Structure to design on (766 residues):
């Protein structure tokens, strides 16, 4: 606008000058300029004018030269008006300067930050010290209105005041009256008969005011949101067979006071179509009997665009994993408007089969190339398989050595059947020397120190030495693991530890133990998702009692002694399909483990533990997490039951929240928890993003339901004794360490249960 206005003023003035001069040639006949005088200057120096003026002393000028001079000065943008006169042999240049901006003040803005607004004004040329152009001010007003409209404030009023100041300067005041946010008062859908307004509006992101609108802003109108909702509406009908569905019109109106918005959508539903027959055509490089099971829609089914799209994706994925990286699968629906049936055809164009020329890895400056390549599932010179490429990327991410892993599959220049797979990694620190302080309601003050190297000398081997100290435990441990002891991915590790435990500090019966041990372990991969683990080790334990120890404990010591040396065997199986180990939102994990002492050990017992996790996305922002655990232990040989210090416990942030740690289940004669040999726990959580936080990758909130308890043995299990709790939980991976909080409310606590509504754990590392 500014350029157009300036240009218009300039060309009008030049045209007028030309007409005047052509009509009165005697008034400005060519003459030799012996001097040049500039009048009208206030802030701008004469030297600046002379610098831009194309006329010099001693030059003879005519009408064309005068027009060129005016043109050159107008182009500077410094002047509102320019004209030339002759005074004898002196060329007089009369100018009217544009005012300079002395100050800019913004008042009344709450939603928009003042500093950000001033920076935006400066970018378009409206800033202190700049030449004032009123057209820019008008542009600013329009842009501010647009920004407030996007925030639902349609009643915004923006007043600008330009105050002339001395020395041809101006002060600018932008006074903003934001007004109230306009809310969607009503959304009407006209023309729907098959589905009710409630069913359709449940799919919309835009809503009338609700309890959560203050957080979601779903009751604020935006053109983009409405367009997205209309596409959702169209998809809703197409997924239910209404292929002739059409949105006829959309009306958006606002009340005169700019507070309420009414939306009306006019639709034509049409008839519902069903599938008559499903056909395959094209170049079927994969047998039809392998493709048909991937098609998720069958004759007689109601047409669904969603299931058709999913079928296309599944067929394309199958072809991609067979080496046809550039396969195209197109659907060809043929509608019969009389019978309202669809003949659905899938046309397959596989293209050329593609193989991988090279797998390239870049960015691993500290990690040996072989450490990355042994994680590759896509081999060089093999047919391209999209699933293997992605699986290789996921395996690299799960190593924990890299901050970021990217993959590209460019074609090889000059070929149509070759491509390269290029992995680029950004290494992160895989080793640390750390010390830490923290506090936990269950463990009290925590102190830890560790030396850890998960990628020792870039070899992928793990070395760890740790010291942990709390009110409950003092632990010294050392561990070494070679994850690729063999080329097939069999791991081997060694570990040793010493642990002092004060059970009384953990809300348990009054006793303490000193435990030492060492083991050697092996991990064997079964496939991409399954792994078994074996270990054999020694464990020595010294038991200490007090006069407050329960009869169960003292009787155990009288019968079996207080010092034990055992040979311990463990075996476990794990199936893991989670997309990530931390903050999982898709996939699952289940495991079962057996720990037993070998016959002839001082203690003869075994423990079984089964755990399962399932993560299912409900929406783009909501995830349902289901977790369950069953634990059981018993003695064998001369031992009639599980040793009491190996008992299982329930209650607290890791099992049933809202109850104090380890307090559920059987009690001794002093009323202290003694644990049991049978444990059952179930957790259901809905994970959701943090309100008002744009990026919440390091924060997780959830609403939970916990069910569980521990029993003396499985014969004592009674569903009526299970404890229930509900509440909210949060986990934040803060720069100071992990912070976990929960607010739990027991639903069926009984007399003697130790309730603890607010529970937290804080750790910090430095």
């Amino acid at each position: 606008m500014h350029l157009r206005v300036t240009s218009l003023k300039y060309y009008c003035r030049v045209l007028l000058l030309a007409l005047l001069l052509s009509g009165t040639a005697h008034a400005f006949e060519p003459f030799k300029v012996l001097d040049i005088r500039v009048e009208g200057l206030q802030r701008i120096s004469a030297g600046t004018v002379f610098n831009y003026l194309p006329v010099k002393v001693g030059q003879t000028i005519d009408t064309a030269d005068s027009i060129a001079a005016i043109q050159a000065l107008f182009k500077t943008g410094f002047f509102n008006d320019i004209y030339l006169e002759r005074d004898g042999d002196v060329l007089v240049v009369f100018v009217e300067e544009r005012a300079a901006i002395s100050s800019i003040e913004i008042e009344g803005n709450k939603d928009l930050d003042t500093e950000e607004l001033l920076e935006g004004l400066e970018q378009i040329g409206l800033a202190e010290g700049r030449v004032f152009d009123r057209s820019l001010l008008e542009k600013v007003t329009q842009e501010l209105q647009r920004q407030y409209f996007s925030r639902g404030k349609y009643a915004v009023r923006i007043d600008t005041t330009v105050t002339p100041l001395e020395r041809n300067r101006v002060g600018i005041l932008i006074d903003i009256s934001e007004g109230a946010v306009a809310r969607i008062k009503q959304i009407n859908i006209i023309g729907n008969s098959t589905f009710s307004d409630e069913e359709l509006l449940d799919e919309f992101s835009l809503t009338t005011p609700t309890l959560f609108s203050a957080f979601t802003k779903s009751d604020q109108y935006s053109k983009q949101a409405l367009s997205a909702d209309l596409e959702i509406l169209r998809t809703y009908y197409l997924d239910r067979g209404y292929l002739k569905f059409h949105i006829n019109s959309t009306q958006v109106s606002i009340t005169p006071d700019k507070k309420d918005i009414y939306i009306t959508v006019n639709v034509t539903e049409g008839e519902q179509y069903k599938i008559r027959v499903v056909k395959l055509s094209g170049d079927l490089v994969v047998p039809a009997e392998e493709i048909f099971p991937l098609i998720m829609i069958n004759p007689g089914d109601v047409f669904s665009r969603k299931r058709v799209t999913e079928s296309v994706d599944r067929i394309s994925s199958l072809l991609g994993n067979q080496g046809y990286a550039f396969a195209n699968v197109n659907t060809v629906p043929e509608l019969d408007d009389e019978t309202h049936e669809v003949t659905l055809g899938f046309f397959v164009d596989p293209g050329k089969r593609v193989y991988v020329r090279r797998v390239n890895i870049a960015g691993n400056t500290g990690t040996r190339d072989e450490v990355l390549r042994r994680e590759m599932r896509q081999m060089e010179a093999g047919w391209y398989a999209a699933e293997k490429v992605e699986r290789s990327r996921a395996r690299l991410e799960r190593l924990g050595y890299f901050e970021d892993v990217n993959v590209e599959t460019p074609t090889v220049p000059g070929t149509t059947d070759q491509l390269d797979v290029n992995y680029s990694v950004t290494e992160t620190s895989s080793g640390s020397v750390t010390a830490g302080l923290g506090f936990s309601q269950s463990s009290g003050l925590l102190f830890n120190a560790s030396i850890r190297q998960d990628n020792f000398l870039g070899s992928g081997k793990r070395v760890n030495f740790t010291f942990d100290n709390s009110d409950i435990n003092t632990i010294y441990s050392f561990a070494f693991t070679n994850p690729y002891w063999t080329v097939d991915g069999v791991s081997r590790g060694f570990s040793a530890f010493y642990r002092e435990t004060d059970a009384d500090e953990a809300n348990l019966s009054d006793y303490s133990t000193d435990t030492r041990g060492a083991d050697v372990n092996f991990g064997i991969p079964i496939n991409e998702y399954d792994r078994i683990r074996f270990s054999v080790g020694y464990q020595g334990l010294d038991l200490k009692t007090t006069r407050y120890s329960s009869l169960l404990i003292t009787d155990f010591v009288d019968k079996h002694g207080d010092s034990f040396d055992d040979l311990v065997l463990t075996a476990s199986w794990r199936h893991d399909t989670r997309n990530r180990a931390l903050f999982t939102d898709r996939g699952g994990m289940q495991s079962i483990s057996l720990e037993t002492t070998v016959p002839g050990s001082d203690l003869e017992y075994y423990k079984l533990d089964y755990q399962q996790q399932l993560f299912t996305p409900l929406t783009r922002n909501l995830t349902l997490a289901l977790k369950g655990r069953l634990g059981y232990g018993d003695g064998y040989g001369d031992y009639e039951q599980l040793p009491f210090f190996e008992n299982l416990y329930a209650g607290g942030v890791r099992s049933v929240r809202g109850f104090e740690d380890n307090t559920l289940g059987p009690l001794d004669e002093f009323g202290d928890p003694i644990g049991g040999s049978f444990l059952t726990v179930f957790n259901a959580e809905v994970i959701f993003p943090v309100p008002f936080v744009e990026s919440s990758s390091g924060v997780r909130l959830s609403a939970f339901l916990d069910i569980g308890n521990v029993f003396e043995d499985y014969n004592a299990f009674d569903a009526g004794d299970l404890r229930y709790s509900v509440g909210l939980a949060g986990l934040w991976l803060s720069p100071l360490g992990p912070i976990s909080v929960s607010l739990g409310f027991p639903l069926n606590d009984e007399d003697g249960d130790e309730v603890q509504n607010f529970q937290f754990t804080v750790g910090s590392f430095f």
